[in-house]
Amino acid sequence: MSYVARKGPQVVSALGRWAYNLSGFNQYGLHRDDCLDENDDVKEAIRRLPEKLKDERNYRITRALHLSLTKTILPKEQWTKYEEDTKYLEPYLEEVKREREEQTKWESTK
User: Fold this and answer.
1) Which class is 38-109 in CATH?
2) Three-state SS sequence of the chain
3) Average pLDDT of the residues of the chain
């Protein structure tokens, strides 16, 4: 299966941009999907990622941990921009949730 990650939020607004920059994860070079709480669905979606995306994700998280430990942030030109934040995990997560719901329905009909 081939997925194209959705770029940026669906609605671009000044308030959205403000909230995005206020969150602070972009100062470490992280994407929104890097910060998701790792429940079972997210773990399965991460497992299904192509190796290249997994490697990129691991690099961003490792770099962010290092920056946090040294109490520094990236230079502003390296921050993740609101418009460029890729929701790379979204299609995989939606697929996992659909499968889980289908399995629940299937088991309830037995």
Assistant:
1) mainly alpha
2) CCCCCEECCCCCCHHHHHHHHHHCHHHHCCCHHHHCCCCHHHHHHHHHCCHHHHHHHHHHHHHHHHHHHCCCCCCHHHCCCHHHCEECCHHHHHHHHHHHHHHHHHHHCC
3) 88
